[in-house]
Amino acid sequence: MDGRIPPRRWCTREERLRIFLLFSIFYFLFSFTVTRAQEWHEMKGEHFFVYYQQDKKFANDVLRQSESYYRSIASELGYQRYSGFWTWENRVKIYIYPDKESFLKVTGQNPWSEGMADYTNKSVISYAWNQNFLEALLPHEITHLIFRDYVGMDGEIPLWLDEGVAQWMEPQKRELLQAAMAKIIVDGKILSLDGLMRLDVRQVSDSDLVHTFYVEAASLVGFLIKEYGSSDFINFCRQLRDKKNVREALTFAYPTTVRTLEQLEGKWLAYYGGVKK
Questions:
Q1: Confidence check: pLDDT of 8 > 50
Q2: What residues are paired with 94 via a beta bridge?
């Protein structure tokens, strides 16, 4: 060794080209894998498009159950199907994100949210979760869309009614309402009907208040349907669709029973064992 630095060896043109090609292939494969992981796949039913990224079996279950819920919910709400309703390109779109983190990031929903109905784009957005997705969230969000198609977007539709109808169409919720309402009453956490009318639960982060709102909303709808029948409730919704406010709609649909909000509140609380304060 004479201490001199050996001359630096430069890559030949062919070697540089080979390195560039290898890097390009690696980059292409990496990009393709990422793109494939985020790709939306589509399933088509009579009334729904289901878009999913990963679990094909889960998406197939969602499509099958959606069609079943469509028929039962539309029938129970008295929705008269018109030509082309939710068919062909008017089908409702259901987007299933792979996890809750990606769902919340895209939608900007509150952390307690498990899904949402987009009225403008007539779509349901959620993520692939096992806990009560098919039994609870799916009928809930489909009901939102059917109900809004029925009553429209321009009338005075209180949020408690919108959410109450959606809750009522979840089969499991009906069985739990009596006990849930009883606990709220015993604990002294009951919201007045006026408070329920004013509360925008979409802006609430208090989970207890959110729970109370949803239970009371569902119990009100359940009370009207079970105590006075589906026909009167459908008429009530029809009056709202025809641009009457809530007080006017009550007068038309329940002329001898709950003509006013005050009467509705008193009979509703009595039905569940409470007393109006």
A1: no
A2: 50, 124
Q: If residue 51 lies in a helix (H) or strand (E), which one and from where to where?
A: strand 48-52
Q: Name the β-bridge partners of 125.
A: 95, 116
Q: Taking Cα atoms as reference points, which of 115, 110, 144 lies closest to residue 128?
A: 115
Q: In what order do the strands lie in the sheet with 41-44?
A: 41-44, 48-52, 92-97, 123-127, 115-118
Tell me the pLDDT tens digit for each residue of 249-275: 999 999 999 989 999 999 999 998 865
Q: Please give the single-letter amino acid code of residue 120.
A: T
d(CA 230, CA 222): 10
57-111 confidence digits (pLDDT tens): 999 999 999 999 998 888 887 775 544 578 888 899 999 999 999 999 999 988 8
- Global pTM reads 0.77
Nearest to 184 by CA among 209, 167, 157: 209
Domain 41-151: top CATH class? alpha beta
User: Domain boundaries in the chain?
Assistant: 41-151, 159-271
Q: What is the 3-state secondary structure (H, E, C) of 87-139?
A: CHHHCEEEEEECCHHHHHHHHCCCCCCCEEEECCCCEEEEECCCCCHHHHHHH
Distance CA 173, CA 136 (A): 8
